[in-house]
Write a structure and sequence with these properties.
By secondary structure, the chain is α+β, with helices and mostly antiparallel strands. It contains 3 helices and 4 strands, in the order E-E-E-H-H-E-H. It has one domain.
């Protein structure tokens, strides 16, 4: 299994990003990407249309859980 998290814009949206990891795929708000992955991720999305984080399995698992837990908290607040 490759240890890569990929971010791409969700078609037809201005603020949703499609996340793909070895464990799960889904959508999150771009603000969550910036909060967890930083400005480099945002620049990659705007300039290339995608951002790839290649890291060890533990870090990717932690980032994946954090992204989707932020999304679920934001959804519950709406």
């Amino acid at each position: 299994m490759t240890n890569v998290l990929t971010c791409r814009w969700t078609l037809g949206t201005l603020d949703r990003v499609r996340i793909t990891t070895p464990w799960v795929a889904g959508e999150v708000h771009v603000a969550h990407i910036v909060r967890l992955l930083g400005r480099n991720a945002l620049e990659g999305l705007y300039l290339r249309g995608s951002y790839v984080l290649d890291a060890d399995e533990d870090l990717l698992w932690d980032v994946t859980q954090a992204l989707f837990s932020l999304e679920s908290v934001a959804s519950a607040a709406d």
